[in-house]
User: Fold these one by one.
Assistant:
Number 1:
Amino acid sequence: MKLARFLMSREGFISVLCYTVTAVFSFLSFAPLNLPIFVWFAPFGLFIIEKRNRGEWKKLIYHGFGFAILFYLVSFHWVYHMTTVFGGFDWYLAVPIFIGSAILLNFKFPVYLLLFSFLVKKVGKFFPLIASFSILFAEFFTPQVFPWYFGNVVAENQILAQNAEYTSAYGLSAFLFFVSYYLFYLKNPKKILHFLFLVRSVVTKHQKIAKQMLVGQVSFLVVLVLFFGNGFYLFHKWENIKPIAEREVLIVQPNAPLEFRDGRNPAEEIRNLMTRIDRMVESELKEKPVDLVVLPESGVPFFTTHDSEVTRTMRIYWHQFESLMAIISLRHGANLFFNELDADIPGGNGSSRIVRSEIRTYNSSVLMNPNGERKNSYQKVFLLIFGEYMPFEWMYALSGQTGQFAPGTKLDLIPYYERRKTPSKVTKELHWEDTFGMSPDSVREHYRANQIEENTIGSFLPLICYEVIISEFVRKFEGDPDFIVNVTNDKWYGNSVESYQHHTLGRLRAIEFRKWIVRSTNSGTSVFTDHLGRNIENDFTPIETTATIRKKVSVIPGEMTFYRLYGNLLSYLFMGIVGLVFFVYAKRNS
């Protein structure tokens, strides 16, 4: 009742309006709408609420939760779809789950309001660095399963986005709140006129105050010039870099099913899927070969091509799956990168008897070379909580769709090999139908005449789904990749904006690494992104459908960028220095 009375009051209306400004303006600025002009005004809602409730800590916490819920409702509405459609929860359970996750995973809003209000009271005057410091602290030190930083929204501006080479999204968040707080301070036209008259009178009468005001305005201009100037320089620097090679890459988007609770026949659906993949590849590559074919996460769900005693015990090894992958790579003489399940017993159990409780299952991607041989694999390291594992064993009973995966332990690049450059020498090309009577070994024997000398020509950085949006994790990979391959499955979220948001959050890895990204999805949106963070020809595959897309991927000369070398060093230095200045200033004026 108390909440209802508040919402119907004038104060409640203004508060909800402020929540809405921040949530809607942020959403409009981000993918897929991409209207970046709104981002500069999105923090206004936070500034207004803080000013109206300055020093009232309990109210600021409640308002922070209000921002969290509305922000989640506008930008992450697809979480409700995932909870009801794939989680299987009824609405009366899905709603509290949605609200609870909104509060828990958007703690940055109450933390920001509390810290910002505290520092404003301590400093006692207009000081825009407070806004930058507070948002950096809130984004660094609060939990976020799907980390959407305000800096990611700023990065929709191609020039400003280039600064991510030094600061990732964090530095852009600090820049946004610095500029936005200035705009908020000058939001009243009368205040601007008063400010100009004040400057004129102060310059003639109060030299000390005039000097302070001049320093403030110069600082604002310096920050603008620094970010826009550096972005402009980096954009033109990297735009003129000549690639050392080009690789032809084909992405196959098969729109594979995730589950069969609607009564479909699983065996028939999988057969249709395998036929579809075979025909899509054949149609694209019959006349135009490529160096690399990429299938997405869960492109062929539930199975593995890794033939071992453990995978046979788990009944996830399927010889027809391996046979088809070998057929595709041998038929077209191309590298094939695909996703699968994998399983082992870490360290062995010291016994010939396999105990199921000791088996670990992995979300894995593997490369098959042009000779149809299974080569290096990568097991997903950074797992998604509530999607690929539960924090507590008893929680698995809540949702049958949650996986029970173990994290991988290696962060190795995936080598790939020179493709076959001569036409196929076999008289009969094999297809999916042939796998019913042919083992993987017999497929390789059939294509023996097509086999070529194995010659490594490069390597790429493999990322599975969610991993691409975690900048601190991706930079842990060592070596110099030719490009980044991100395989993902966003089918869990239906025909929503989630797939665009997911890609846009990961797009900054292209700038941080100065490497192209090949994004292969199961049901959309697949896309190629260059080393400047530009989506090539803005060519996205549609959602909830089958599609193929191919481009020439440029191999950019290797260079360890600042962010790869030092990570978030600049952001930590900024917080440390500004925090020290605040401390000294507050102590001197206490």
Number 2:
Amino acid sequence: MKKIMLVDDEILIRENIRECIDWEKEGFLYCGDAPDGELALPIIEAQLPDILITDIKMPFMNGLELTSVVRQKFPQIKIIILSGHDDFQYAQKALRLGVEDYCLKPFSAADLLQLLRSVSARIDEELRIRHKYAYTPENLFADLCGGLISTAAAYEAAAQLELQLTAPYYAAAIFTLQPQNMEESPEPSPASPDAEALLGGLLKEAADSFIYKRSRTEMVLIYKGSDPVQMNHTLDELCAAAKQRLREGCGLELSVSRGKVCERLQGIHLSYLEAENDRMFKQMSRMHSAAMLEAYYDPSAHGVLLDRSRLVQFLKSGDHRQMPGFLLELSKELEQMNWNSGYACYLMNDITLELVQSAKNGFRAAAGHAGILQELQTPLKQISSSDDGLQYLKQLYERLWEWRSEGADKHRELIDRVKQYIREQYDKEQLSLNDISKVVRVSPSHLSKTFSQATGQTITEFLTATRMDRAKELLKSTGHKTFEIAYLVGYNDQHYFSNLFKKVTGMTPMEFRKQGNTEEPLHAIRRGAGNA
């Protein structure tokens, strides 16, 4: 609805216009009125009407003065002048100031409505033209993939471009042309016009899809549909056919990186990020495939066995205080590495991919950092010793922890309330996600997703860790039997508690008590341990 505002010093005129027209029925919103220009300005600034109706002759600030100010400060507002026959010359001056139209007094409600509809139509046409020239299909698709346009704006732009965007599901895929002999040229080289035309033609044959050219060697496909299974099947067939045609017709290999099928229009961005990550992974794998082969002939490589789950867990729950000890443990393993070998380069790249992928999957703020793998290529190439490798990992963890903090800060109050409630209620056996969601007044699905993205742990993992922390304290400081401690921390089944305790700590409750373990309280556990 277009917002309408009226400025006239005659109260009867203001009341008649305000009361005699059913504004909502006519498709307008009456947002206010004022007796003169001076009093009108604050209302105009607050309401930002689409159309301003103003009389010419008013005290304090007349209509021409008001028009001049509004034209300078709010050029998008359309102005209609109310004018009597005696001051028509003023109306002509107002037209020269850039007002949209004028209405001679006296006038009827029908006359005013006809004029408002005419001005409203001009606003719509101007908006259509602006959007037509503001967006090309390529720009729209690029913004959808980049997450740079809202759903409403995307649908509006698509309508102006006569594109049918609406669908229940969407997926994105990146098609990259490469030479057949990757040993001679591991990096993509410019494709010939014939190859580009062939690939573009093949992708255009796909029904319910849109394509845009991202670079000289890359095209992006946005695919939509109503059945995720059928969409994946169709994409499989399209990719296989395109690879064969490019190989036979142009002597080029086609690499396809795909994101998962997602719901809603904004899901295009999520699918595109997955496809981009898959593309980077494939590129890095090609660059270091020789190093993987070299590992079979590098005796030093066989002694380096890094626990990837430990690296990922430290990303999710570690902090700066624990960094020195963590790096010390890693140094013992990395010092065995031959840093002049290709395998060392491969190993650091592989660790990088593992950690970045885990951060993107687990941290809410990671969605806006799609280019990090490209940024890390330079520091990765500069690693030539175990000290360099440890310093690189330290900086990588700090960078990814920034994502974790950003995601946590957005929901800090909610997360703190959840943690506090769990610490107070952990001894209740039936404590569940539904119970917690009712206390903090958000849906269970939203709470689960928000908590995981902000902390790197599920609520179940945090609850289990809290219970295990308390159990360790009781084992150290009391003489309670195992079944009593199990009950005190929320478990009625002693055997289940004992098995879970051993899974988390590596010891049974009795072994832990006998050893007088002095470790710090448990801050995190592996995924899957325990159920809320």
Number 3:
Amino acid sequence: MTPNAASASSGPSRRSFLASTAVATAAVAGGMPLLAACGGSDSGSKDGTTSGKSAKKLLPAYVASNVVSPDIPSKNGSAMGFTGKLDLAGLKTSVPKKLGKGSRVKIMSPFWGTPPKGDNPYYTTMNDLIGVDIAWQNQDGNTYDEKLGAVLASSDLPDVVVIPSWNMGGKIPSAIISKFADLGPYLSGDAIKKYPNLAAIPSGAWQYSIFGGKLRGLPQPAPSVPGIVPFYRKDVFDKEGYELPKSPDEFLALAKEITRPRAKVWACDDMKWAAFEFFGVLSGSEKPLGWNLADGKMVYRVETEEYLEALEWVRKLYAAGVVHPDAKAANQGTAGDRFTAGQVLMYNQNISDWWGKMAEQAGQNADFRISGMDIFGADGGDPTLWAGSPAGIFAFVNKKASKTVVEDILAAANVTAAPYGTKEYMLTNYGVEGTHYTVKDGVPTKNDKGNQEVLNAYVMLASPAPTIAHPDLPDIAKEQVEWQQRMGAFTKKSTFWGMQITEPARYTNLSNDFEQLEDDVVRGRKKISDVQQAVSDWKKQGGDKLRDWYQKLHDTNGSAQ
């Protein structure tokens, strides 16, 4: 975790999450059967979803937090923003009474970095505040898929398992349904009021935590605004007088103007993610969001003209020589490093890089300035953006856990979901003052011990409503939230937004090869016609049958609109 980290919850894809500072900012940021038309009851087939009246019966009551008021309220699906200095003396208390009863709880979670020793001051202080003896079983986040599969296949599960949405492929959803507890009796309706910080989590995040007809997940809520930002070097743009492009054609023309290979300057890195936004392509990070009912027909993202147009545009960037050559190799360095080095002036990444790069460069390049360009439409007009999932990471409780253990886990989650500006939030995200961080002029700064111990653990259990706050760089927090609010005005919810859908197992890997094909096409190794052929094969191999399945799902459940 980087110094001064606060929260910017969002739902990036697995690749963008691992390649950015999203881990550092992630925390800052009763049983109804499955519907009969979608696979039968909870004891039978596991595919389908729960929506409408059935879902509402499972949802916790929403009670907005009034402990702290944001400087910038949420709007158009954005995070809320805090843009002032931090006043430690003015921190609020959101958990006045210790709810934990002293259980020993084992939690398995992905971890990026070197895990600290289990008896470190951060863990012991958090456990004392919660009243629960939590032992972390941290696993390498880069290979978490492998460990997760093995653990879920065994009969010896930890009390809690954290599962990011990008690790939910294959048989994982079925394992979630069969292995983890129904939290409905503890949280549905007014029951959640025992845990006020959990009650302040938006209802959309809770609905997305329904698996197999029961409320099973503790969510990390995310803004509905797309999380990928087309970044540019504002300091260089201002110096050189470059004007921000307002269409794909203007982007390409500007890219040609910027690129000077002899000076080792290229306009951009791989821009595929941004291209999908420019051309209005349905989300691809989670399969249900890739489906949409348009003009009475159920359509998958790879079948659309927008998808082909986006790939063709990125292919033109590569063909024009305006993309850094290391991006073409795809395994040479990182786009972010090339950006800070001034070798590329535009790249796309998770919104957390806005603060991450500014904080990283603060002591190295005083003139460095990153900013995000507004997303434009394919014709130069307003864009069509698609909402991301309302939550991106979940913690699940072992089905065999006793009532006391479940309640102690919820007591812990109620602390980690405390809002920004509270004592519980500071301890969860920064550790112990003096031991893990110091505060000067209202800016908390982690020391080496803080960077070693206060990361990737308690923040993974549950999070508050999406929040962006950077006491060290309040202007960046303001820019991030305002960008989200502008883009949120053009963001739509696709047909299955907010529904946690489990596809029939025979279809789960059907579209796995498209990402590699996309990368090959934009780099000139394959052709657009190869994509069209792959789409034709996808239809024959089950895509058309999967379309029928989604159509039936919609006919039974309706949509998120």
Number 4:
Amino acid sequence: MDGFKPHSSHWGAFYGRHQGEALEIRPHPADPHPSPILGNLPAIAHSPARIRRPAVRRGWLEARPDNAGKRGSDGYVEVTWPEALDLVANELRRVHGEAGPQAIFGGSYGWSSAGRFHHAQSQIHRFLNVLGGYVRSVNTYSSGAAMVIIPHVLGPYDTLDRKSVTWDAIERSSEMIVAFGGMAVKNTDVHGGGITRHVVRPALSGARARGARFVLVSPLKDDIATDLDADWLPVTPGTDVALMLAIAFVLVSEGRHNREFLDRYTTGYPRFEAYLLGREDGVEKSPQWAAGICGIAADTIVDLARSMANARTLITVSHSLQRADYGEQPVWTGIVLAAMLGQIGLDGGGFSYSLGALGNIGKSQLAVPLPTLKQFHNPVPDFIPVARIADMLLNPGEPFHYNGQALRYPDIRLVYWAGGNPFHHHQDLNRLRQAFKTPETIIVHETAWTSSARHADIVLPATTTLERDDIGAADRDPMMIAMKRLIEPVGEARDDYEIFADIAERLGKRGAFTENRSSHEWLAFLFETTRAALAAGGHPAPDFETFWEMGELQLPVKPDDGGPARAFRADPDANPLPTPSGKIEIFSETIESFGYDDCRGHPRWFEPNPTTRAAESRYPLYLVCNQPRSRLHSQLDYGDFSRSTKIDGREPVRINPADAAERGISDRDIVRLFNARGSCLAAAVISTDVKPGVMQLATGAWFEPDDADAEIAMCLHGNPNILTRDTGTSQLAQASTGQLTKVDVERFVGELPPVRILDGMTFIDK
């Protein structure tokens, strides 16, 4: 292809060619709707934000570990690779000797590469396990509450609920799709491990052309594709559970619920119904009750409930709803509502969690396994829910509850991070800044000078996906890609594998870590897993070198047979769910036994926490902090497409015209969003697509404090996590509540400070 080589990314497969300083990108020809995020890739080759040499924080060099308070404001000294690797190895040796592996936290968030081998999360966990283990994190920021509640109610996460409803089934059979939290098409541009064909748009359009009705329950009108003519119910943020309960109330009071399904396939329904009808607490969860909470008229709720009962209805619940206080409840209530309709397991009906959140959810399952790098066993038992990192660093030894366990936060002396940017995905960044000043040493592998790199002691420059060979493959995507290196490593950047191998050598563990294989030999070794399965199934099974020359390989998929939900519906005795009852747990004796006051035995509406409500009562606006359309999380914020969506170099914040007029704000004004936790600058975009009383500011702008030494800083760039609360969803999941917060906004007055975070780093002499 005229010098173009195959490659892949989280937002799509593509072909690339590097000539001189220019990197040219062509989307994969089979992709009907390539993601515009590919437009960020060319900046990798030349951006000043890239880290080109190892660097060490000056204060740490001079007075470790007593200079931790200067993290985030200190200067950096560039060093040679041998110097940097010696420093890392010596620190690991010291902390192991003084406190053991339980004093090391291995941080990673796994989105750093679409490749199956050069996957930072796998690499760092393998490396630390070879050394004796580490304190780990569980679950994700995106889906932390759902990952805990779903196993109690349906069985293992990502099984029944996300492997039973396909886009093909929706296109051919769904009559009504009720999307709680929406299914924003921009989110389907990405998927961990890659995506070859973006099929969501045509599938939804096909369903609409057939006559399917879409209902969007969200404060944002564009949380669903505009061409679907969806009925928009602009719900008050955080109140979807009240609306769901009122729909359920109508089903029961009018006898529209499926009693046969509830009796055969669920357990605990009578106890939930007693709560629903007010026999438990004296409060009927009626449409009139819900209307005063969620802002949707009672008559509208009644009509919606009747329509759902009279159609082949699919209920979806987005990631966003469970990234808030009591985030377990909307997922659980959505499942119960779908069970009451009795359509779980029907083609195009029932329930699907986070359909539309990622590009490959809703596709058919692969029929063969994918290459996976073994990470070995971690002998350290200590762990934290992923969103509790600041709690851990600030409160070593303090007790906390998680999923029925009484645990204590470990005492962490060294943080080792590779893959991910906690100053993007964590909440209350001023609190995180203080937490990052507590460990003795922080080591990061990074590709660019993000705020995470600027809060580390030792910074090792890692290659990006474009600078290495790998195998691109993802669950539910039927194409394996030979990801061929497109550019030479920028500066002195090295692969994570090479970095860890050299550190392991200094610690006498190189052979254990590498198994004496080069990167290319690892690719061939890992590929064999898939090749052997292809051969056993009678499918074309080329050897690795043939695949590498071909550039891509079509993988077989399983038939679209309704998945685990259809099998359960057909014969619940032969195909029971992996729950204590073998059924859908509307009431969970297990959860009830935990004794939590913020997550009981059945789903319910929880009033806002009184302490939180009092603290935030003076901030009148909800801020929705959702995913950006111009990048994946904070990745490649310095790319051309991401920069093109900014206004005067800052992130856009959408404001309803009424709220803007009340505050004298005009389109493109630079505004200051603020609450008790901090503030940030952003550029106003006046829009009727946001509900009055609501603003929307996407996550992912690299955090840049106005005063790196201040306890409460303002972000100049527009990172909303300077404003969000760092509290868990409940004692059950302890998941992130970063989707929503309360703020106020005003026009910024005075000299506008520049945004420099994307400009790279200026170094000091040794």
